[in-house]
Write a structure and sequence with these properties.
The chain is mainly beta. Strands 1, 5, 6, 41, 47 and 49 form a six-stranded antiparallel sheet that branches. Strands 4-40-48-45-46 form a five-stranded antiparallel sheet, with no helix packed on it. Strands 24, 25, 26, 27 and 28 form a five-stranded antiparallel sheet that branches. It is globular, with a radius of gyration of 27 Å. The two termini are 20 Å apart.
């Protein structure tokens, strides 16, 4: 029978109800002509492009075909091929930064004192206008930089085409609700103002006194839990929400309202994290998948929403045997690369689907799922004879000849009792040899017979050295399901090879009890 391995992350408050993890794997639908309706694809690895300053990488931006990076308190211009960073000056703060440009000037909002870089004069300077009281977020609209003042309800505009000049009367207050203004973003020539409990949308009215005016009716009672969670994707806006009734739901804009895109399972995870205000969101597109990446630094966790499949999965680093938050901290496109910056050091990486590790560190992938399809568990015990993973095999990096020194050659037969060499005359010779993971990668299987609370020992199956495309990835003698008559399987791996999982087939026998 088909075991329902395909799907997304969905681990509920009770793992007995659902315990489906999807870490460093994302589903891709196959609309027609495929072996299965879809498959699980390995998340991109991190290919090192260069080092910019000492880090962490707080923000990246590209304009006029030049890359700019805030690393620690340094501001750098970066050129590709090879990646060379030139120091331009220092900026303040320690958290994320938001940048926007008007074609000549680059405004760097540092959640307080902020800076203007002039690309014509190559000068970086702090904004010293006496009426400037800091900026959390910044956007560009019709010649103006628009920004929100920290710890206030005020939204400001700079002078026309001059981000360093601020008129003392060029501000307004987001007063449709008395909540504090958290952040803003400019989208489709409109300014979305996010409060803690509400959102209102303004536009350029052309008024000579103050150019921005509120759009009547463009208001809803869904606020924002984290200033840096707001990002644009798929012709809309995504953010981590909060309101007077709670927090921790992820929304995307639908007209001037928010549509919930997170699931109950993801929301339950998020609402356990405590402080959500430091969450960081960025977006990118790769192979037609539009991803909203939501990082929770305090919780050491990263979630990703895929617009193409409307599904969630986890992205993670893997250190000291544990999953951690993904190493990325911000994103920009530069030099035909999808570039992310490291949250601890000055490294900048390319997202590469043909790279199967994180700058040399293991990238562990994992998938857990219910052995039986939904609604087919009749609460009787089953004998689980074998599980075969339907995946692309023969993906190892090197062929191995275990008898290379003796001149004996043949096909290696993998069995449960040992490995054998089938020689040209058909004889079967028991062999022992050591194969490194990169030469003949392994998949690790565990299972749980109590709904996902405790797990079995690890069991290994090989995926075949390169070119052995007919290698079967399977496990036998998997025992009986126990008192709960329920089983959850988990497969995982760390070897730096391509992973594509189309399905899983489970051979079992029912009992009468």
């Amino acid at each position: 029978m088909h075991s329902p391995i395909l799907g997304s992350s969905y681990v509920t408050r009770s793992v007995n109800a659902a315990d489906n993890r999807c870490v460093n794997l994302f589903p891709e639908a196959i609309p027609e002509g495929g072996k299965e309706p879809g498959f699980l694809n390995r998340a991109p690895g991190l290919r090192l492009l260069g080092e910019v300053g000492t880090g962490p990488i707080r923000g990246m931006y590209t304009f006029n075909n030049v890359g700019y990076v805030v690393s620690g308190n340094g501001f750098f211009r970066v050129t590709p091929f090879p990646y060379v960073a030139s120091y331009l000056g220092s900026v303040s703060g320690s958290g994320p930064v938001i940048m926007s440009d008007n074609g000549t000037q680059l405004f760097i909002a540092c959640n307080g004192p902020s800076f203007i870089y002039n690309s014509s004069t190559n000068v970086l300077a702090s904004i010293t206008d006496p009426d400037f009281e800091g900026a959390v977020a910044v956007g560009y609209l019709d010649g103006y930089f628009v920004f929100n003042q920290p710890n206030s309800q005020k939204v400001w505009v700079t002078s026309l085409l001059d981000g360093s000049s601020v008129d003392p009367l060029d501000f307004a207050s987001a007063e449709a609700s008395p909540d504090k203004l958290v952040t803003l973003i400019v989208d489709h020539r409109e300014v979305w103002l996010f409060g803690t409990n509400s959102v209102e949308v303004w536009y350029n009215s052309g008024s000579t006194d103050f150019p921005l005016a509120r759009i009547q009716g463009a208001y809803n009672e869904i606020g924002c839990a984290a200033a840096y969670s707001v990002a644009k994707l798929d012709n809309g806006i995504f953010w981590l929400g909060s309101d007077a009734r709670g927090r921790g739901i992820v929304y995307r804009a639908n007209g001037y309202t928010g549509t919930r895109v997170s699931t109950h399972a993801v929301e339950w995870q998020i609402q356990q994290y405590g402080d959500l205000s430091d969450a960081i969101g960025y977006t990118y597109q790769q192979d037609g998948h539009a991803f909203y990446v939501l990082i929770f630094p305090s919780a050491n966790t990263t979630w990703v929403y895929d617009v193409a499949t409307q599904s969630w999965h986890e992205r993670a680093g893997f250190y000291n045997g544990q999953f951690t938050r993904h190493r990325s901290n911000c994103f920009a496109t530069f030099g035909n690369e999808l570039v992310v910056g490291d949250y601890e050091n000055g490294n900048v990486y390319a997202f590469d689907l043909n790279k199967y590790d994180d700058n040399g560190a293991p990238q562990k992938w994992l998938r857990s799922w219910r052995a039986l399809p939904t609604g087919q568990n009749n609460l009787t015990r089953t004998a689980q004879h074998s599980l075969q993973l339907d995946c692309e095999s023969g993906v190892g990096l090197n062929e191995v000849d275990p008898f290379g020194e003796t001149g004996v050659s043949g096909d290696v037969l993998l069995t449960e009792s040992g490995d054998f060499l089938i020689t040209e005359n058909g004889s079967r010779i028991a062999i022992t040899y050591e194969i490194t993971p990169m030469q003949n990668p392994t998949v690790v299987l565990r299972w749980s017979d109590d709904g996902g609370h405790t797990w079995s020992n690890e069991h290994y199956s090989r995926m075949g050295s390169i070119g052995n495309y007919q290698t079967r990835v399977f496990w036998r003698r998997l025992g009986m399901s126990l008192k709960l008559r329920d089983r959850v399987y988990e497969v995982s791996g760390t070897d730096p090879v391509k992973i594509a999982i189309m399905g899983a087939n489970l051979l079992l026998s029912p009992t009468n009890v």
